[in-house]
Amino acid sequence: EDQVTQSPEALRLQEGESSSLNCSYTVSGLRGLFWYRQDPGKGPEFLFTLYSAGEEKEKERLKATLTKKESFLHITAPKPEDSATYLCAVQARINFNKFYFGSGTKLNVKP
Amino acid sequence: NAGVTQTPKFRVLKTGQSMTLLCAQDMNHEYMYWYRQDPGMGLRLIHYSVGEGTTAKGEVPDGYNVSRLKKQNFLLGLESAAPSQTSVYFCASSYSFGNIQYFGAGTRLSVL
After folding, report:
1. Cβ separation of B103 and A44 shorter than 8 Å?
2. Is B100's Cβ below 8 Å from some Cβ in A?
3. Helix (H, G, I), strand (E, B) or coil at B75
4. Is residue B103 a contact partner of residue B90, using CB atoms and an 8 Å limit?
5. DSSP string covering A84-95, please?
6. For site-directed labelling of B68, which of A7, A109, B46, B109 has its Cα 20 to 30 A away?
7. Residue B26 sits at the chain A interface (C-beta within 8 Å)
8. Is any Cβ of chain A less than 8 angstroms from the Cβ of B95?
9. Residues A55-88 pLDDT 10s
10. Confidence band (pLDDT; 50, 70, 90) for A92?
11. What is the chain B residue with the closest CA to A33?
């Protein structure tokens, strides 16, 4: 069964305290893995797409990496404005019209 | 740049009532999607469309109907609302499957 699990559910960091969010997935052939950011009361906003194991993408303080079973979103020296819920989604190669979203990690960065 | 616009933003229904949620996109995207988001669960795909005049079922289609009469609009209908349909509904669009999905701000629906 295709599924996506994100951990932790919630994460509290002090400003400047680096950490990582995890997205574990089981899918019958990965076509793509997506990271989104969601602010309260808003829709998800695209961050990264990863397609193959070993691939890395960076944007400001965020870096996404991908292995055959999981993806990490590394946050370096976070700021309060990085507080949001981070969602991971996978697209299967066979049923490519389906996207499976994780339940998200709610990040709170304290000043 | 409007992007993806959803109306209404909030709605309260009584059990058995019907309503239509409207999604409009101005990016000339072929693909459009309707999701629901519930606490502790990920976004779940209700229905999607790969182009004007086409619709297909997603993961949780029961109790919902959709129509894509115009390329820019994707409508989600609830014929007889149930409390289990209380949720936040998001519409999204993309150039093609596997491309970036752009989401609207959501519709918060409560069914009493």
Report:
1. yes
2. yes
3. strand
4. yes
5. EEEEEEEEESSS
6. B109
7. no
8. no
9. 999 999 999 999 999 999 999 999 999 999 999 9
10. confident
11. B98
Please give the span between the terminal C-alpha atoms of chain B, in angstroms, as a whole number: 36
Contact in structure between A87 and B42 (CB atoms under 8 Å): yes
- Among chain A, residues having any CB pair with chain B shorter than 8 Å are 4, 31-32, 34, 41-46, 49, 87, 89, 91, 96-104
* Interchain proximity A44–B48, CB inside 8 Å: no
Half-sphere exposure of B73 (CA within 13 A, CB side): 10
Residues in chain B within 8 Å Cβ distance of A45: 103
Q: What is the mean pLDDT of residues B51-58?
A: 94
Cα–Cα distance measured from residue B91 to residue A43, given in angstroms and rounded to the nearest whole number:
9
Residue in the block written with tokens 């693909």: B31
Bridge-partner residues for A50, per DSSP?
A33
- DSSP SS3 for A17: coil
String of b and e for A51-74 (b: at least 16 CB within 10 Å)? eeeeeeeeeeebbbbbeeebbbbe
- Residue to test with chain B: of A37, A38, A99, most B Cβ within 10 A: A99
Nearest Cα of chain A lies from the Cα of B108 at a distance, in angstroms, of 9
